[in-house]
Specification:
seven-stranded mixed sheet; alpha/beta; 10 helices
């Protein structure tokens, strides 16, 4: 079951030749989700091969570097003869402005665009095997992040034990794994607990968008397999980060460490670091012992299951 993250836009409010504004593309076993849609997102989709076929768009807040790509993307989807509806999830109180943006320059989409306000703590998308929830962040406007959390998986099936108990190879293995007791040829009943281990956790992906470091992020990112966190500045601009309600790389690293996340990806890198953003990563690494990524636009990250190495 694949979970792939493509970083379409890793830059801050001012784009550079190397980093576009915010956009994160997630493909979970064919379900295609887009988190924020800054200017140039559709070009990134073409350049990095994700395609346009998104099912849901999750907007963190209404600053231009997170939403100005929406009108162009919607028009391109129409030009490509899309008929399926597109759902845009957004913070409370922002639907009207987003609706105006979708219809910018008098454009009426050729397909239905649903705009749904989602309060922090609520489930934006309840899908097969996972859900996407909103959580409150701290920025200079109404803002929120999103957490994609998979359901627990079935425990490991002990085939040698099942055979030892007399269960014939075949459909009864599947029934046992699904939680149903079965009967052997000699009439004995084998219960699932005898051959199936405890449930195994699914994966968790957290996207903060623009934010100050917050306890709430620590809570939702506890044990996260990938935390994508605002890291607009290095320590040399810590005061600026505070004044503009962003985070430094070190602050993002501290959040990841407190959450015991497995990997941290640093995004929304200010154009001030266009020549060299390595201090942001270096300072995050000093605060967090896990793997720290400073992705470039176009980088693709596979998110493995927590027990993938077992």
């Amino acid at each position: 079951m694949s979970l792939r993250v493509t970083f379409l836009g890793t830059g801050g409010a001012v784009p550079t030749t190397e980093r576009a504004p915010s956009a994160l593309f997630v493909n979970r076993e064919g379900d295609r989700l887009l988190f924020d849609c800054g200017e140039g997102t559709q070009r990134g989709m073409m350049r990095f091969g994700t395609g346009f076929g998104i099912d849901h768009l999750f907007v963190s807040h209404l600053h231009g570097d997170h939403v100005l790509g929406i009108p162009g993307l919607v028009q391109t989807l129409g030009f490509n003869e899309r008929t399926a509806p597109l759902t845009i999830h957004c913070p409370p109180g922002t639907a009207d402005d987003l609706r105006d943006l979708v219809h910018a320059v008098g454009h009426d989409p050729a397909f239905r665009v649903r705009i749904e306000e989602i309060a922090p703590g609520a489930v934006a998308l309840d899908a097969d095997g996972y859900e996407v929830r909103a959580f409150e962040t701290e920025h200079r406007t109404v803002s929120q992040g999103y957490v994609l959390e998979e359901d627990d998986r079935l425990g490991r099936f002990d085939r040698p034990k099942a055979e030892e108990l007399g269960v014939p190879v075949g459909p009864k293995f599947g029934r046992l794994h699904a939680g149903e007791p079965v009967e052997t040829e000699d009439g004995a009943v084998v219960e699932p607990a005898q051959v199936v281990g405890p449930p195994r956790p699914g994966r968790t992906l957290v996207y903060t968008a623009d934010t100050r470091p917050r306890d709430q992020t620590v809570e939702v990112a506890e044990g996260a397999d990938l935390l994508v966190h605002d890291a607009t500045f290095a320590d040399d601009m810590a005061d600026r980060a505070r004044d503009t309600a962003h985070s430094t790389g070190r602050e993002a690293g501290r959040i990841a460490a407190r959450a015991d996340a497995k990997r941290l990806a640093l995004v929304h890198v200010s154009s001030r670091y266009a020549a060299d953003a390595s201090p942001i990563r270096r300072e995050a690494t000093g605060a967090f012992d896990g793997e720290v990524l400073l992705p470039d636009d176009g980088d693709l990250v596979e998110v493995p299951f927590p027990d993938a190495s077992e």
